[in-house]
Amino acid sequence: MSSVIGRIDYPNNRVFEVKENNILNENVDVIVNAANGLLTHGGGVAYAIAQAAGDELYKESEKYIKENGRIPVTGVVLTTAGKLSFKGVIHAVGPKFGEGNEGEKLFQTVYNVLKLANNNAFSSLAFPAISAGIFRVPHDICAKAYFDAVDKFYNDFKYSFLKTIKLVMFKGKILDAVLKEYEYRKNKI
Questions:
Q1: Which tens digits make up the pLDDT trace of 18-31?
Q2: Residue 32 confidence (pLDDT)
Q3: How far apart are CA 60 and CA 82, in angstroms?
Q4: Which burial class, exposed, middle or buried, applies to 39 when counting CB atoms under 10 A from its CB (0-12, 13-18, 19+)?
């Protein structure tokens, strides 16, 4: 079941939504994969996306790593969406807890995702909670980084191609932290 549980409107008909849903069910141009640096897609959202996309995404991921090496933290890569209806999948490598400066690194990761989507003229994007699962970055740090990155992107690119940004996740502690951040920010834009 899909439901918008938070929405912030920005100038020039741009919007940031927080949704409770399966990211694979979103009607957007491109989705984001919370990836690891080797694009192995071994668990969580990464596994679900890769399984649904099929062999083409796995092959393109392997080829990218073979030709370019490991993707660094804050790095983002665009690949095919395989069997999925999206125009592409952006793989984003967020920080792991304990690396240091996780909030800034996560902010930069999400900002890089948004810039890559905009540079490819995508008008809508859905991203999951990045670094909040097996990478164990505290949820309040994650929530702040997500909102900060969207806010900076929309302020830096006032006439962006990217008009709709959705943060999509299931119920749980990360969603609770995001909603708390949303309540704090919703009237400050």
A1: 999 999 999 999 99
A2: 97
A3: 9
A4: buried
Angle at 131 between CA 72 and CA 156, to 5 degrees: 75
CA atoms of 18 and 43, how far apart (whole Å): 23
Cβ 104 vs Cβ 137: under 8 Å: no
Please, what are the domains in the chain?
Answer: 3-185 (3.40.220.10)
- Residue ranges, the chain, pLDDT below 50: none
Q: Which two tokens stand for residue 100?
A: 């240091």
Single pTM value for the model: 0.95
